[in-house]
């Protein structure tokens, strides 16, 4: 295994993302996932800065059993003119019990003079005093050299002096921070190369810094280069890399740690972590999205839902021969999957591969299968012209395919008719009432449902009508409903596209309906959603 430190700051810098607010329980749950992923260090927050972070460290001491990672507490150097030993925020770092303390310190002379409003000597004294004190308290100390790259451009000698002060006082790591995120990879490479030489680093164990000292990197993504900058720094000699899961962080975020690790390991051949743990990265990235309540970014490299999803027919036809022809690596390395998307850009190969993904092995050499593929393809193209979008409604595509394959789709129910009315009421609210007539379980059923809107009422009525024949329907929940008016420029020619997301508590699926009338489109998507739910549950037609 390589000697590179993998340092995660999701719980500290990640939590500085706009709209992200983690409870102590959330932080503990995320820390567990990070440990499962195999990161070396988990920065838990800033104890003393807010009660939540203080409590996190207190609870971590009793509730968190880390297998792989070491916990780090983040904080600042002591106050100007004070003493580390009596600084309450420095004391809180010790009291956190974390074995590692990461100190943010100024290395940019402009920040020393204008933000700290002190002298260059006092800033260096703050670094020395705080690092020495924490070392004396038995802590490993890492230093985050804030605004290092901008500071280096203004006064290289002073920026280096700040790092020397930290190392001479016993810091193990000095992480160069691109705090404003404005750097480009070439600049980072040049600066890190120079710092490694100037501080005579690179002669230590593992090709790292001399003695136990290491140079680290902490990048923000303001130029869209956080990952590339982190890679450049590691290439130039940094042996400690910081980042966050899903690239969370202040402003445009931090370097996405999974992307950095996967790049180093799978592209550059460095053994950063156990390959089995890397295979957990997609699952863990998504599990953490659930906790943060920030929707997973589908186009995220390696772990995104679309990272190995293929839409173009030409891609599919080559992938049929060998997936490597249109994929930069096997998604299994990061625990992701290849998926075929069906749309009007599909070709026969797309339909064949998607069918295989769904468990239907259609043989292109077989005349019947080939005709079926051609028919499905033609149907998809015709429907997409009318406003369907099957790449957002996988479940509806599966139903379309099954309708063409003899015996692949049971007839769960037959709709006779449906109707909705909406009443305005004296209290100002409007209430909708829907009536559905259908046959299921060998009986004709008529049910009425009420709802706060017409689609809600239709959903209720459909469920009531099916409940006796299919009690399994109780587990299905409509979780999202999206409407889009297409070709609105044509006024009355406009059609409505409705996408419905449904859950059975374990998984979710999307269905689609397209019609000139919004209620008709909604009804189509609802019927598809329920049909697919019954199919997934393995229920026989009754
Ligand atoms: C680059 C980064 O992202 S570093 C992480 C930043 N994270 C955060 O700021 C989140 C947590 N922060 C907080 O809760 C609060 O800002 C606290 C508790 C740390 C401080 O709060 P307050 O005492 O009210 O001070 P305030 O936030 O207004 O100002 C920060 C003070 O720290 C000083 N300071 C800034 N950097 C450092 C440093 N590296 N070392 C010592 N002091 C510093 C500032 O000069 C300022 O001093 P002043 O009060 O004499 O003006
Ligand atoms: C320390 C830190 O988060 C930064 O400089 O960006």
UniProtKB/TrEMBL annotation:
<dbReference type="InterPro" id="IPR036230">
    <property type="entry name" value="LeuA_allosteric_dom_sf"/>
</dbReference>
<keyword id="KW-0808">Transferase</keyword>
<comment type="pathway">
    <text>Amino-acid biosynthesis; L-isoleucine biosynthesis; 2-oxobutanoate from pyruvate: step 1/3.</text>
</comment>
<dbReference type="InterPro" id="IPR013785">
    <property type="entry name" value="Aldolase_TIM"/>
</dbReference>
<dbReference type="InterPro" id="IPR013709">
    <property type="entry name" value="2-isopropylmalate_synth_dimer"/>
</dbReference>
<keyword id="KW-0412">Isoleucine biosynthesis</keyword>
<dbReference type="GO" id="GO:0043714">
    <property type="term" value="F:(R)-citramalate synthase activity"/>
</dbReference>
<dbReference type="InterPro" id="IPR005675">
    <property type="entry name" value="Citramal_synthase"/>
</dbReference>
<dbReference type="InterPro" id="IPR000891">
    <property type="entry name" value="PYR_CT"/>
</dbReference>
<dbReference type="GO" id="GO:0009097">
    <property type="term" value="P:isoleucine biosynthetic process"/>
</dbReference>
<feature type="domain" description="Pyruvate carboxyltransferase">
    <location>
        <begin position="4"/>
        <end position="279"/>
    </location>
</feature>
<protein>
    <recommendedName>
        <fullName>Citramalate synthase</fullName>
        <ecNumber>2.3.3.21</ecNumber>
    </recommendedName>
</protein>
<dbReference type="InterPro" id="IPR054691">
    <property type="entry name" value="LeuA/HCS_post-cat"/>
</dbReference>
<keyword id="KW-0100">Branched-chain amino acid biosynthesis</keyword>
<dbReference type="GO" id="GO:0003852">
    <property type="term" value="F:2-isopropylmalate synthase activity"/>
</dbReference>
<keyword id="KW-0028">Amino-acid biosynthesis</keyword>
<dbReference type="Pfam" id="PF00682">
    <property type="entry name" value="HMGL-like"/>
</dbReference>
<dbReference type="Pfam" id="PF08502">
    <property type="entry name" value="LeuA_dimer"/>
</dbReference>
<comment type="similarity">
    <text>Belongs to the alpha-IPM synthase/homocitrate synthase family.</text>
</comment>
<dbReference type="Pfam" id="PF22617">
    <property type="entry name" value="HCS_D2"/>
</dbReference>
<dbReference type="InterPro" id="IPR002034">
    <property type="entry name" value="AIPM/Hcit_synth_CS"/>
</dbReference>
<dbReference type="GO" id="GO:0009098">
    <property type="term" value="P:L-leucine biosynthetic process"/>
</dbReference>
């Amino acid at each position: 295994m390589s000697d590179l430190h993998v340092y995660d700051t999701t719980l500290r810098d990640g939590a500085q993302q706009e709209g992200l607010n983690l409870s102590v329980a959330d932080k503990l749950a995320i820390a567990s996932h990070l440990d499962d992923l195999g990161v070396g260090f988990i920065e838990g927050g800033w104890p003393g800065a807010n009660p939540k972070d203080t409590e996190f460290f207190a609870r971590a001491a009793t509730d968190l059993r880390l297998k792989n990672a070491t916990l780090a507490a983040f904080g600042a150097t002591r106050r100007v003119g004070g003493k580390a030993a009596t600084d309450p925020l420095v004391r809180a770092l010790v009291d956190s019990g974390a074995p590692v303390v990461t100190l943010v310190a100024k290395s940019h002379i402009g920040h020393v003079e204008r933000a700290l409003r002190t002298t260059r000597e006092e800033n260096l004294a703050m670094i020395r005093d705080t690092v020495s004190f924490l070392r004396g308290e038995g802590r490993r100390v890492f230093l985050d050299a804030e605004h290092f790259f901008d500071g280096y451009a203004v006064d290289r000698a002073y920026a280096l002096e700040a790092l020397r002060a930290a190392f001479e006082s016993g810091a193990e790591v000095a992480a160069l921070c691109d705090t404003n995120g404005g750097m480009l990879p070439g600049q980072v490479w040049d600066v890190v190369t120079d710092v490694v030489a100037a501080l005579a680093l690179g002669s230590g164990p593992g090709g790292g810094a001399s003695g136990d000292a290491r140079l680290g990197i902490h990048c923000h993504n303001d130029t869209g280069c956080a990952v590339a900058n982190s890679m450049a720094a590691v290439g130039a000699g940094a042996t400690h890399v910081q980042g966050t899961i899903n690239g969370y962080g202040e402003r445009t975020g931090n370097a996405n740690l999974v992307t950095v690790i996967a790049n180093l390991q799978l592209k550059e051949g460095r053994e950063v972590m156990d390959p089995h743990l890397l295979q957990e990265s997609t699952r863990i990235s998504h599990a953490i999205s659930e906790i943060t309540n920030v929707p997973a970014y589908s186009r995220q490299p390696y772990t995104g839902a679309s990272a190995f999803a293929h839409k173009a027919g030409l891609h599919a036809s080559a992938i049929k021969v060998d997936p490597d022809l249109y994929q930069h690596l096997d998604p299994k390395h990061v625990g992701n999957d290849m998926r075929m998307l069906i749309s009007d850009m599909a070709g026969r190969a797309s339909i064949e591969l998607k069918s295989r993904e769904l468990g239907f092995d259609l043989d292109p050499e077989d005349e019947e299968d080939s005709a079926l593929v051609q028919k499905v393809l033609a149907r998809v193209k015709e429907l997409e012209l009318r406003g369907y979008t099957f790449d957002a409604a996988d479940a509806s595509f599966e139903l379309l395919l099954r309708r063409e394959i003899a015996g692949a789709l049971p007839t769960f129910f037959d709709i006779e008719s449906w109707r909705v009315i909406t009443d305005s009421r004296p209290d100002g609210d409007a209430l909708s009432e829907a009536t559905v007539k259908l046959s299921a379980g060998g009986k004709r059923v008529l049910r009425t449902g009420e709802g706060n809107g017409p689609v809600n009422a239709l959903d209720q009525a459909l469920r009531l009508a099916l409940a006796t024949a299919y009690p399994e329907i109780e587990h299905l929940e409509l979780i999202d409903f999206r409407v889009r008016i297409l070709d609105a420029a044509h006024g009355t020619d406009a059609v409505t596209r409705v996408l419905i997301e449904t859950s059975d508590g374990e998984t979710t699926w999307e269905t689609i309906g397209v019609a000139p009338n919004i209620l008709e489109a909604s009804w189509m998507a609802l019927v598809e959603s329920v049909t697919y739910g019954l199919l997934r549950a393995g229920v026989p037609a009754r």
